[in-house]
Amino acid sequence: MDAFEGHSFSKGTVIVHEGTRADAAYVVEKGSVVVFRTVNGRELMIARLETGAIFGEMALIERRKHKASVRAAEDCICAVVTEKVFWKLLEDANPFIRALVLTLVKSLGATTSQAIGLQSMLGMGIGPDTDERGR
Predict the structure, then answer these.
(1) What are the coiled-coil residue ranges (predicted)?
(2) Which of 30, 33, 48, 89 has its CA 20 to 30 A from that of 125?
(3) Distances in whole angstroms, Cα of residue 31 to Cα of each of 54, 58, 74, 82, 102
(4) Rounded-to-integer distance, Cα 71 and Cα 73, Å
(5) What is the pLDDT of residues 53-69, one digit of tens each?
């Protein structure tokens, strides 16, 4: 991942905003981030991503706006993979790997939507009296 430019983000900085157009994917090089959605004024935590994790790729692949926000859970460094570079890498990939990635992203998107719906129904999430783990 050294070919991509690393950006530093301070704890609490929102890196990706829900509802905005996707223009890059990110690789967590150091630290961690929290993926969340805001539903009825409460933050519903979707995932905590650690070093090596990728985010923003689903919106790029599906050519849509971000369905969730991502915030630095601590000071972190993320490699930024621009949309143009992302698509070039995917186009150059082995056809089987490309098809596998596209299929997995579609399945993960459906599963994530179901999980968010369940969290919302159960009233789970991050509120004023909870931490990033929903406690």
Answers:
(1) none
(2) 30
(3) 13, 21, 6, 21, 27
(4) 6
(5) 999 998 998 889 999 99
Q: How confident is the model at residue 129 (pLDDT cuts 50, 70, 90)?
A: very low
**54 is written with which tokens?**
């990728």
Q: Residue 134: pLDDT above 80?
A: no
Specify the pTM: 0.75
The CATH number fitting domain 5-123, selected from 2.60.40.10, 2.60.120.10, 3.40.718.10, 1.20.1270.10 = 2.60.120.10
- Quote the tokens at residue 126: 């991050």
- Angle at the Cα of 41 from the Cα atoms of 37 and 47, rounded to 5 degrees: 25
